[in-house]
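From the thread on structure requests for the teaching lab: each student submitted one protein with a one-line request. Submission from student K.M.:

"Model Nitrate reductases, NapA from Haloferula helveola, C-alpha cells only."
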Amino acid sequence: MIEELLKSRQGPLTEDLVQEPGEFGLGKVPARLKPAATTTSICGYCATGCQLKLHLDRDGNAINLSPQASYPVNLGMACPKGWQALDPLTADDRGTVPLLRDPATGQRKPVDWETALGVFVDGFRSIQDKHGRDAAAFLSTGQIPFEEMAFLGCLWKFGMGFLHGDANTRQCMATAVTAYKQSFGFDAPPATYADFEESDVIVLVGANLCIAHPILWQRVMRNRRNPKIIVIDPRSTETAQAANLHLPIRPKGDLPLYYALAHCILRDGRIDEASVARTEGYAEFAEFVKAFTPQSVSDVTGIAAETIEQLAATVSEPGKRVSWWWTMGVNQSHEGVRTAQAIINLCLITGNIGRPGTGPNSITGQCNAMGSRLFSNTTSMVGGHDFANQAHREKVARRLGIGEDRIPKDTSLEYDRILAAAEAGEIKGLWIVATNPFHSWIDSGRLAALRDKLEFLVVQDMYHSTESATEADLFLPAAGWGEKSGCFINSERRIGTIKPVRWPPGQTLSDFRIFRLIANAWGCADMFSEWTDTESAFRILRDLTEDQPCDITGITDYEHLDRMGGIQWPFPARTETGDADTEPAPERRLFEDENYYTDSGKAKILFSPPSALPEPPDTGYPFLMLTGRGTSSQWHTQSRTSKSDILRKLYPAGAYVEIHPEDAAEFGIEPNQAVNVSSRRGTMTASAYLAPTVQRGHIFIPMHYPEVNRLTHPSFDPHSRQPNYKACAVTIRPASAGHR
Ligand SMILES: Nc1nc2c(c(=O)[nH]1)N[C@H]1C(S)=C(S)[C@@H](COP(=O)(O)OP(=O)(O)OC[C@H]3O[C@@H](n4cnc5c(=O)[nH]c(N)nc54)[C@H](O)[C@@H]3O)O[C@H]1N2
Ligand SMILES: Nc1nc2c(c(=O)[nH]1)N[C@H]1C(S)=C(S)[C@@H](COP(=O)(O)OP(=O)(O)OC[C@H]3O[C@@H](n4cnc5c(=O)[nH]c(N)nc54)[C@H](O)[C@@H]3O)O[C@H]1N2
Ligand code: SF4
Ligand SMILES: [Mo]
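Reply posted by the TA:
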C-alpha cells in the first residue's frame, strides 16, 4: 500500500494523495484537486499568523508566493521568513527515507517504512512491557497543525497507553498558560490585533516585536491615536529604540516594578471600581503592595523612583486605553507566572480589560503554540479539558468513541521532569516530534549526557541533520509546512488553514500519515478510524470544544475558515440567544462582559513576594547572560532558515556576543575578537560585538547558535515549569590566539 502511494506521487499534486491515505481501507477515494492559479496558507513560522498567497503551476505545485492583502492579520505584509517560506523545502538535508542506527557500527542506514514501523512498535512495546506506561514520553511542538498534535497526543495516551508527553511550548508559553488559567479560570489570551491600533498607551514587556513579530510592529505603526509606546527590556533593542520610552530594567526586576506601580495607583486612588468589583483578592493585594514604594524597589529594578511614579500615572490615566503585551522577557523567568499575573492585576485594577485597545496580552511564539495549548493532549486534555475531571473524561471518551478507561486520570510530567526521569533511568524511551531539544533545551549538555541512558530515541523531523535527529536510534522523515494540510491558531486566537502545495521529497510522509501508520502497526487503528484526514480530525476536535470557553462548534469546515479570513475562538454554534451568526465579526476580544471563566465568574488577583535570581553574577562569573532572538531572518535552531540563500545573507553566520564597550575595554576585548564565554556548565566561542545596547555587566547571545544552551542555568518557574533562559552568570575572556 505504502509503495503504491509513493509511486503515485509522480502525477499532479492532489491533496488526497499527500494527506489522505485510505491505506487501511478507511479513507475516502482520492479526488483530484483541480489545479488552481493560487491558494492560501498561514505562514509556518511565528504566531503572528500572516496569510500567504501561493502561486501554483498547472500541477498544483507552488512556484512563488506573496503576502495576502485581504487577510485581517497581515494586510499584505510579510517578514523575510514568510517571503522565503518555500526555500527550506528543497534543502539537501531533507529526510527522504527512515534511518535506523545499526548498534554494531553506530552508522545510520536507510530502511523502508515497514521496517521502521516494526522497529518503532517493538522499541516502545518492549519498554512498556518491561517498565510500564510511565517509562516513555513524547516531546512535541507548537509548529505542526493541531490536527496532527491532537492525533499524536491521543494516539500516545489513549491508543498506545503511555502517560507522559510534553511539548516545546513548555519552553515558550507555559508561563502565560498558567497565569491565565489561575487568574481567569481558562487559558484565554484576550486580545485581538486591532487592539494594537486602538491603544493610547502600549507597554511592551520583554518583547522585541521588530525582530520577533515584525508584522505586529507594523500593526503598532498603523495606530492613528498617537500612542505612547513604552518598552521594558534590559537591552536597548530595535523595538526599544523605536519607542517613546525605554525602561532598561534590571533582568528579573519586573515583579517588584509592577507591584510598585500598583502601590502608586492604589495610593493615589486611581483604580477602576467597577473592574475591581469583578475580582477576588483585591483587599489582600492592597495590603501586600503597601510595602512596594517606588523608592524601595528602585535598586532592584534599576529604575528611578520618579520614573516609576510617572509610569504609574501613565498606565492608570482615566479615559485612556492602556494595553500591555508581553513575550519571553516575562515567560522565561524563575518567577514568570507571578510577573504575568502582576501585569494582569494592573489591567484589572485600572479597568484596562475587555475594551478596545486594552488588555493583559501575551504574544505567542510559534505558528501553532495556541493550537498546542488547546489540543496537544499533554498537561491538559484535548479541547482544553482536565484529566482529573470525571465529566471531562466522559465527554472526551464519548466523542472519541473510546472506553473511558483508556483515559488516564493523572497528568503528564512536565518537560524538565521528563528529562530528570530519563536522567534517573526511569524514562527509557523518547519520541521527539518537530522540535530540536539537543539545541534548544536549557543546559543542553545534560540532555546530551542523558542520551546514553535512553534505550530508544526516535526523532521525527523534516531534516536528518538536526542536533536531535543525529542522536536518534530511529529517524522518521516528515513532510513540512507547504507539504500538508491542517489548521494553526495565531496569537489573537484566530484559526486558519494551511495547504499542500509541494510534494514531500522521497518517501517522506506528513506527520498525520505517520501517526496513522503507527496506529495501524501498534494495533489501535480502530480507535482512530474516523481520523482519516486532517479535516475529519478537525471535525472531531471542533465537536470536543462544545461548551468550553474555546467553543468553535460554529465553524463548518476549512472552507468556512478560508472564506471568513480565519475565525477567532470562541465561535459556538449555539449561543444564549439562539444559533450563532454564520459570519463572525472579523475582530473579537474576550471579557467584554467582564465575566471570567472561574467558578465565581470573577478574576483572581494573585501575587507573591519576589524571589532572588537563581544564579546571580559573582566574582568568578561576573556577567549576566541574556539570550533571545537575533534577527528577523533567523528561526530558532535554524534547521529551516539556514537553508535559504536569501535569509543566510541577512544574519551573521557565526555566533556573536553583544558586550558593552566599557566592559570590553576592561576585559581587554577588541571588536570582532574571538572570545570564550563560560558558565559553570560549559564554554562557547563567539565573536565580540561591542555595543551599548546591552547594559554594563550584561552580555547577550542569540539563541540561534547551538552552543548557547550549553551555558544556560537549569532553573524553572515553580508554577509553570518554564525554563529561565534569560539569566545566568558567565565570564568572558579573549580566546587563545589560535581561535582568532
Ligand atoms: N525572527 C524570529 N522571530 C521569532 C522567533 C525566532 O526564532 N526568530 N521565535 C518565535 C518564538 S517561538 C517566540 S517565543 C517569540 C519570542 O519573542 P520575544 O520574546 O520578543 O523574543 P526574545 O528575544 O526571546 O525576548 C524578548 C526580550 O526579552 C528581554 N528580556 C530578557 N530578560 C528580561 C527581563 O528580566 N525583563 C524584561 N522585561 N525583559 C527581559 C530580552 O532582552 C529580549 O529583548 O518570537 C517568535 N518570533
Ligand atoms: N537560550 C535560549 N533557548 C531557547 C529560547 C531562548 O530564548 N533562549 N527560546 C525557547 C523557545 S521560546 C522556543 S519556542 C524553543 C524552540 O526550540 P525548538 O522547537 O527546538 O526549535 P526549532 O528550530 O523551531 O525546532 C523545530 C524542529 O521541527 C522541525 N520541523 C519543522 N516543521 C516540521 C513538521 O511539520 N514536522 C516535523 N516532524 N518536523 C518539523 C524543524 O526542522 C526543527 O528541527 O527554543 C527555546 N530555547
Ligand atoms: S511575521 Fe511571522 S507569520 Fe508573518 S511572515 Fe513573518 S514569520 Fe511569518
Ligand atoms: Mo517560543
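TA comment: The chain has three domains: 99-172+376-568, 175-362, 623-737. The first helix runs from residue 2 to 7.
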